[in-house]
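WARN  no MSA supplied for this record, continuing single-sequence
INFO  ligand: 1-O-phosphono-alpha-D-glucopyranose
INFO  echoing inputs
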Amino acid sequence: MKVTKAVLPVAGLGTRFLPASKAIPKEMVTVVDKPVIQYVVEEALAAGINEIVLVTHSSKRAIEDHFDTNYELEAELERRGKLELLEVLKDTVPAGLKVSVVRQGSALGLGHAINCARAIIGDAPFAVMLPDVLVQQSGTRTDLGVMAEHFHETGNAQIMVEPVPYDQVSSYGVVDIKGVELEAGEGAPMHRVVEKPPREEAPSNLSIVGRYILPARIFELLDNTPPGAGGEIQLTDAIATLMTEQGVDAFRIRGRSFDCGNKLGYLEATLAYGLKHPKLGSDFRALLKQYQ
Ligand code: G1P
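INFO  complex generated
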C-alpha cells in the first residue's frame, strides 16, 4: 500500500532548547531561512506524502499558522508588486499539501502522541516523522521515500536507524538485527528493539533516527502499551509488539541526520544547510573561512 500520510508529533515543550523555545515552538526555530518544521514537511512531500497530521499543543499555534494561508501578507506583497516574495510565501504550503491538526491533551509520551492521530489516519499505513530530527539527503531519492517503497513492496514496517557511539545509546531507541552489517541504504529484519537502554544492555549501537513507516495496526497495539521508559507510553514498545506479529525492518540512513533538539546538533544543521543553500551557500563558505 502506498504511503501518503505522515504524523508529526509537535506537542513537546522543547525544554532542551530553552530559552529559544520559551515563547515560540522549538519546531519554529530557524535553520538558515526556514523553520525546522518546514524542512520536515518538504522531506515528506519529496517522499510522496501529501497529508500531514500535526499532533500539537495549545502553546504551539505558530506551527498551524505557518502552514495556513496568510491572506493579509499575500495581499500586501501583491499590492507592492513583490512577486518573488509572494512565491516564497506561497511555497510554504505547496499545492496539494493537506495539513490537519489534532491536540495531545496530556503529555503521556511519543506513543500516546501518535495514537492521537488515529481518527485522521484511519486504516492507512503512515509515516512518523519526529521534527527534532532533520535528514539531509545527498541524492535525489529521499530515504523516507525509499522506506515507503520498501513498505509498499514487502508490507514490513520500516524504521530508520544509524550507528551512534555506544556512550549515546541510552538517548535513543536501539535495534537488534543480529549482528548484520548494514551499509547505508540497506535494510535488515529487526529482532528486538529497546527504548533508551543503558549502555551495557544495548543490543547494538544502531539507534532509531526518528523516521518510521508503520501500518495502522500500531494504533491498536498502542492502546495496550503500558508506560515504559521514563514512565511514558513509548512508540518503541508498540513496535516491539508489532514485531511479534509481522516483519519490521531496520533501514540504515544514507543521508545525514541532525538532532535539532539539542543545541550543538542545531548549530551543525545550520552549518550543513547553510553550506548547501542554493543562494547563500558559496558566500557562507567564504564567510566561514574567516572563523577558522
Ligand atoms: C524518540 C524515540 C527514540 C528515538 C528518538 C530519535 O526519543 O522514542 O526511540 O531514537 O526519538 O530522536 P526522544 O528523543 O523523543 O526522547
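The chain has one domain: 5-289.
INFO  checksum written, moving to next record
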